[in-house]
Queue: 3 jobs
Job 1
Amino acid sequence: MLEITGIHRGIVIDHIKAGLGYKIFKELKLQDVAYPTALIRNVHSNKLGKKDLIKIDNVIDLNLNVLGLIDPNLTITIIENGQVIEKKQIKLPETVVGILSCKNPRCITTTEHNVDTTFHLVNPQTKEYRCEFCNTRAKL
Amino acid sequence: MEEQEEIFTLADQIMANEGQYLDICRGKLLSTLFYEPSTRTRFSFEAAMLRLGGQVVGFSEPNSSSVSKGESIADTIRTVGCYADIAVIRHPKEGAPKLASKNANIPVINAGDGGHQHPTQTLTDLLTIRSLKKSINHQVIGLCGDLKFGRTAHSLVKALNKYENIRFIFISPIELTIPEYILEDLDPGSYTLTDNLDEVIDQLDILYMTRIQKERFFNEEEYLRLKGYYILTKDKLATAKEDMIVMHPLPRVDEICSDVDDDPRAVYFKQAKFGMYVRMALILKLLGGA
Ligand SMILES: [Zn+2]
């Protein structure tokens, strides 16, 4: 397995479904930061077969909602002084405000300015979200 | 469902004792915000409020208002909330009434949002059935005409599906058949599809007619050919049950011949009256007067 330098203080996003690592890396805008980061792709995983992994040598605010939408199965580990201090399990958010946009051209959120789109989780198994306004299914 | 039943009970009380409700909303103001014209629905709401002793202000098309200056729905409803006690909104975009109610400090009633919902029409239909057939349960209902795009038909099917022992007969040309996503929610044993009204009319307790619009067809001949099958005439009623009722959300064009109007089974004008009563009940309930 590929050896990555240990992190003293930072975040490890693990168990990312292979292929989604780059999307999350971009979503967190890690390509623009000055501190060390690593995106490791296609690592062998007993659980997933292959997985992606991101290491961030800094403690930053993560929008767990966004990460949960991209891959609800990933895990987040926070490291301080070389020790794991917190493991966060991602869950699909019940409600997503902003972020997603409604695909229904007849939906009021497509024309009205300054409206936050709002989607509610109706089925966690199928990751199905529906628009609060027009009830249209969101594609993730 | 429980709320719905409360509205029906209140509507019953109003119909039985209209005199007692003449002044009940005195001093209250209803605002009608019609972002697209719908004279019929607007009149029904206005009549409902006036008959409760309240008053009405509003606009009936968007270019007569600040809307044409680009004001957001959120701002409009906040402003309206400063002087009205309750608002009714009709909008061509889906979810607009929901958006308004999220920003409002007064009750907001959806009077139709695009092809999405028109809840007071559905309440009207249910109250009509409940009043004229004594119960909403145990009915065989035939829905006839444009079942593909007909919003009122879709909402009625969804609403009736919550009642007991309802059998649906969907009568339409194949081009305008009821969408699969509506059928998915129904028990497969509870419905039949047909393109022939004559063959099924004798089974029906309720015949719900809808309009077939010309623009749904590729060509004029096809439209004229099919339209004829779905026009209700006095002759077609010959085999129907004596106590069947014929409903229509109105306005009708030519899908029901005028010679049907005198038949006691034709209840579509009564239906419009039930529409006013159900709106009176809804307004009264939302204003906390019930
Ligand atoms: Zn929407």
Note: The mean pLDDT of chain B is 93.
Job 2
Amino acid sequence: MNDHEAILTVRSLKTHFFTADGVVKAVDGVSFAVGKRQTFALVGESGCGKSVTALSVMRLVPHPPGKIVAGEITLLGTNLLELSEKEMRAVRGGQAAMIFQEPMTSLNPVFTIGNQIVEAITLHQNLSARTAKARAIEMLSQVGIPDPAQRYKEYPHQLSGGMRQRAMIAMALSCDPELLIADEPTTALDVTIQAQILELLKRIQVRRGLSILLITHDLAVVAETADVVAVMYASKLVELADVERLFTNPVHPYTQGLFRSLPRLGERKTRLETIPGSVPSPLAFPPGCKFHPRCPVGCELQRCRTAEPELREIAPKHYAACWECPGYADAPPADPAAEPIAYRRGADGR
Amino acid sequence: MAAEADNALVVVRDLRTYFTVRSRLFKKLYVRAVDGVSFAIRAGQTLALVGESGSGKTTVGRTILRLIPATSGQVLFDGQDLFSLPPAAMRPLRRQMQIIFQDPFGSLNPRLTVEGIIAEPLKVHRICRTRRQRRQRVAELLQRVGLEPAHARRYPHEFSGGQRQRIGIARALASQPKFIVCDEPVSALDVSIQAQILNLLKDLQEEFELTYLFIAHNLAVVEHFADRVAVMYLGRIVEMADRDELYANPMHPYTESLFSAVPVPDPTRRPQRSRLEGETPSPINPPAGCPFHPRCPLARMAVAGQLAYQRGGQPRPPLPAHETCRVAIGGEPVRLPRKCVEQVPELLPMPDRPDHLHACHLRR
Ligand SMILES: Nc1ncnc2c1ncn2[C@@H]1O[C@H](COP(=O)(O)OP(=O)(O)OP(=O)(O)O)[C@@H](O)[C@H]1O
Ligand SMILES: Nc1ncnc2c1ncn2[C@@H]1O[C@H](COP(=O)(O)OP(=O)(O)O)[C@@H](O)[C@H]1O
Ligand code: SF4
Ligand code: SF4
Ligand SMILES: [Mg+2]
Ligand SMILES: [Mg+2]
């Protein structure tokens, strides 16, 4: 298999919300490519546009007020933005599936777990009721749900948070997708259950050759699971590299700040370092580099305050959008959607 | 009791909080949310309460503050027995004990201005009598938590999560408390904001000599913040020690499992996971014996003879058959140490380390 083959490319995506208070530019020019069988993590703070990016790929942005106003989203060679709604529905239950932070948003409380998985299966495959049921129970057991035949008959509220998340994964996988979009799949769970779910996703990925677009705000989860990482701030990507490079050599002051403010096991400081201020509201983004009011490097620099830096390839396969980072001045503008960053961890996770 | 300390501001003894729920057959059932918890917090220090969701952490905090009635047990605050005080004597103590909530969105009244929210305790406890004094005090408090006096006239929805948490902290500080229950104060916040709030809480602790009960599930945050740590499982404390000791020498297998589940923010280091299987059982019908036995890796290792009682020591031979028994866990037959299944392990100090307590038969 070619390591440079992309399953998904997102190019110059702009998704805006037209609200009474003004235009919220939730995603404003985002480009990246996800390689086949890769885990691509999109990381950033609350409100930076991660979920809207994911919803855009699935074409599930609520409309009105939201609209994809520009860009191109290509899944396995098909530009999704040109498909009819009917064709898109086939994609959603076929090549691509999505799971959410709160499983209850996608599980229907009035139907049993089994019912819902059977429905997902039969939507795209012509199976007898009996085969579909057997398949659903098999799915539940594959995601590690004990006593699957019993759980099949239960309603979502009868399951714990971790079990619901497993059931949702089973549902997402039941139509055998090639791309799984996971939006904060473990954020609502305890660390012990989080570890179980992350391991489950990893196992399924290896077994099925799945590509995963993982959305999270947790850098530790990124470190444990991702091959390639994109850091998002205020509706744009600010840094993009393979996981090893990004963690050992972050160049954007925002990425560096995130790492510094992270409390780590085994490190005891009297004070944590912080990023001053807070994430700006998308209705009042600052001019110039959107990070400049919080940036220890550029807050006083004229260029940072007036001109917004674009993403450039500052070193081979390492992209950043910061006037002051090393290598930026000499680098040409980059197209990170041109091909995926070919990086994959070994089976042991390294 | 070994769990208690000299100059403790808060002493909790054998606290139990049960909730009544009804089953389908109208039978009364008890949720044993807190089931015999004892600890002490020294004045000016932080005790962290950690454990999975549903382990009873919030209920402990709220029961101490008498926001939830206790089923039994005792809480001493500055030497006074809170549960036997008449309401009139409780009132002056109330102002000395405050709480900061996890959810900075749900915990502020949306119809009040920031000034209204922070001035409420000032009114209730008759701290500032005139409106002008209250204004003045609210402005001071806002400044102290890193907001601006001009924010006083705005409403909670106009603030970000971190700013709302600062408002919640200002409200808690308003009555000049000695003791604050911080119930997951940063769990809902972004990393860059978490660090700001943790630093603020630390500064305030030093400045006002505050004592904290710090409820959290992030062990890295706790390591940074706490003086002493108690680990809860199914309504009980299973291990408690000073921070350095607990992080260096966790004794209870549940504590070990918690540590090993923490994801490490370093892609080049891949820790060997001892993954904890299964989920916390229901506190309505908790397992007999050691509440952790259905999930405990140590108990299984002891039967198989893989267990080194002292970490790093030699494995011991498998337990003799008469010290084990067969039980069904999740439908599967498993052989476990008889003690683990039949006897509730008490939280006891270690012989050579009286400040380190744990509740595991096999690690004795
Ligand atoms: N339906 C909507 N109407 C108006 N604005 C919206 C809508 N959905 C999202 N937004 C705005 O778009 C921006 C990006 O939101 P998004 O949900 O993608 O953030 P996120 O990065 O996923 O954050 P979180 O970590 O909190 O989930 C935010 O400013 C948000 O308020
Ligand atoms: N008002 C209540 N009625 C019934 N059960 C409750 C109530 N409050 C909490 N519980 C139960 O008590 C247990 C402990 O809850 P809690 O103290 O909130 O745990 P934690 O804060 O550790 O997550 C849980 O099983 C929870 O469902
Ligand atoms: S461009 Fe300037 S303000 Fe923006 S991150 Fe770089 S140094 Fe900071
Ligand atoms: S008493 Fe037994 S079951 Fe409980 S923690 Fe110790 S070894 Fe495990
Ligand atoms: Mg989101
Ligand atoms: Mg709680």
Note: Residues B 57-58 surround magnesium ion (ligand 6) (CB under 6 Å).
Job 3
Amino acid sequence: MNFDLSEEQRLLRDNVERLLAKTYDFETRRKIAAGPEGFSRAAWARYADMGLLGLPFAEEDGGFGGGPVETMLVMECFGRALPLEPYFATAILSGALLRRAAAAELRATLVPLIGEGKLLLAFAHYEAQSRYLLHSIATTARREGDAYRIDGEKCLVLGGAEADKFLISARLSGATHSRDGIGLFLVDSSTPGLSRRSYRTQDGERAAALSFAALSVPASALICDDAAGAIDAAFDEALAALCAEAVGAMDEALKLTVDYLKTRVQFRVPLGSFQALQHRAADIYVALEQARSMTLFAVMGLSESDPHRRRTAALAAKARINESALFVGEQAVQLHGGIGMTMEYKLGHLFKRLTTIRRLFADTDHCLDQLAESESLLAAP
Amino acid sequence: MDLRFTDEDIAFRRELREFFAANLPEALRRKLEQGGKAEKHELVAWTRILNARGWATPHWPVEWGGTGWSPVQQMIFRDELQQFPAPEPLSFGVSMVAPVIFTFGSEAQKKRFLPRIANLDDWWCQGFSEPGAGSDLASLKTTARRDGDFYIVNGQKTWTTLAQYADWIFVLARTDPSAKKQKGISFLLIDMTTPGVTRRPIQLIDGSVEVNEIFFDDVRVPVENLVGEENKGWDYAKFLLANERNGQARVGLSKARLNRIRQLAAAAPGGGAPMRDNAAFRRKLAWLEIEARALEMTVLRVVCSESDEHGQPNPLSSILKLRGSELQQATTELLMDVVGSFALVDVAEAQPAPPDVEWAHGAAATYFNLRKLSIYGGANEIQRSIIAKSILGL
Ligand SMILES: Cc1cc2nc3c(=O)[nH]c(=O)nc-3n(C[C@H](O)[C@H](O)[C@H](O)COP(=O)(O)OP(=O)(O)OC[C@H]3O[C@@H](n4cnc5c(N)ncnc54)[C@H](O)[C@@H]3O)c2cc1C
């Protein structure tokens, strides 16, 4: 057990931190958000140059062989600066799926493209009825000769507005909630029969609703015909990455709050001299550090060979992060007074991102219910 | 970064469990599991078993009987003791006064006291708090006036835990009445059988007698029982309190209690179905299990950074006392939830316990007793102030 970063890990973190500090301050972010695409192609190219886009992929597939710890470090930096590019959607979530579900030849063609920044991917999975159930898929895929015909609707496809290709989950067989019979298709976004409606989400990022009306894709588009295991694993990785991002955002929110308490003068003294506010700030710190600990727990869980244990760790971490995000976000706004309420100040955006993360993939009640179903979290050493 | 226990760590855990299972009387294990406490003779016997195995004082320097275990192994040892559950060696001796003695004491003090502490030949208690000096400990009034080769100690200590069993007490007393507050305090070791020392027990809200008042009336303490330098006692006290805070996470105890709650919930009547099937209860239990894991990871972060020897104590350690006490208290509340109204029976008054409430035994007493955790060892409000000041710079 060792929490120290290796030399390469430290370098990676410092480089990402420096890059974002130099090219992605809050004002820049505002301009990018107001631009036509809502994210920056130039920034994307810089991530490619730095090797971030290929980071989570194995070297034999053309990636840089980073693991969960490296992803955690990058995501924590992203959480502080809140860049708007679909890094999570492409490299983390879709990337995890590709790694687990795609055959070697396909990985060999796609991974270099992703790594060079030439391919934006999004995972079209979530459906209106799913809530937080990962295998709830009503979209169907029927074999018709040497093609598949896909019908259905997907919503809240993260990074879906700008994606060049989609990974689409669709049911080959079985009932809507069945774990069996989920296929995974790789489909070009310009394919006729696929229509996309893009929108902005509360955190300033972009997503899309997709509908497939007799979308016809060649049989070769089916990259995995039993994808539930890969989907589970991909979401476990995605949860850990989101937890790390939230830790970065909370860390930044605490920093802004402490700075504010030290500098804002009311009643002729800095706000930070009031004990009620000192103790609130201490509670924010505790919530943040417990979240950081659970992020490490989730990362640790990703190395578990037993998928059940991995899942439990990811959900446990997500629950803790959700509750910390709520407390830290709300209290940081409260301690800032009016300035915390404005779009012109970074804090509100951190809060909005934290609020988004809380609702992504698993809310606290869902996590707790899932954990309550399973063997005790304390069962292992 | 390597977020795994090594194979040796895992084997070590197994070795500990096997040793505890082979050497701890099952009746004592059961008693502890149900929230009971070890009697003096039980703790003495168990400490001697550990000491014979060389495990009574893992964190001491090796020359004085430490095991030389890595910080992670020491953490595993505490965790396994608490989860088993087995009694922990008396903290006032091995974790409070002993580190002060082996860090600041004289050679003669080390030779005289340390082996007896390790073997629990001497039972130690902590004489810091006074009626007028709680959170503001430095306002203490007990005096020690030098008179030849003796100090003459006068004053009163209170909340002294388990002093009813104690052979020795370590005391903060004012040796320089003219100096300001923190200055002028010294750290004295006092034999409880010295004439002029008297004790009065105080009953706590769980019904137990766990703390005492101690009165010092012209008590003659040989100068050789001064630790370190005269008037430097506050430094030693701060050192001691920091050690005390570190041991306060006690995640193993929370884990053990949560496991017990899980077991009880399988049978506890929940109105038609066992409590285990109650959705609200299940969420609470799952939440506290998460909290236990979170705190455990924080402990590991602290423990592993200690091993770096960067010098500075990890500021995270102030979280351990705060969250450790809150988590333990939350588990006792959930234990009350699971036993429901059966917790209301005062089992101490109804011996032998009526069979229908036997299984609920200890729930209420534990709940009431553990309110202390957020009060002693630096109350949680004080911990928050420490975090705000020393970590956040407010
Ligand atoms: C069961 C038990 C066992 C104990 N065992 C021992 C022992 O063995 N040896 C020993 O020396 N002592 C012992 N203590 C004493 C313990 O250390 C003190 O109770 C503790 O330091 C608090 O002091 P107090 O009780 O005087 O409360 P007070 O200091 O009067 O505090 C009362 C409340 O006010 C809050 N408060 C105080 N100051 C501030 C501030 N500046 N800002 C905000 N809030 C504040 C406190 O947090 C607390 O909530 C024990 C106490 C208990 C309950």
Note: The beta strands of chain B are 124-127, 143-147, 150-161, 168-174, 185-191, 197-203, 209-222.
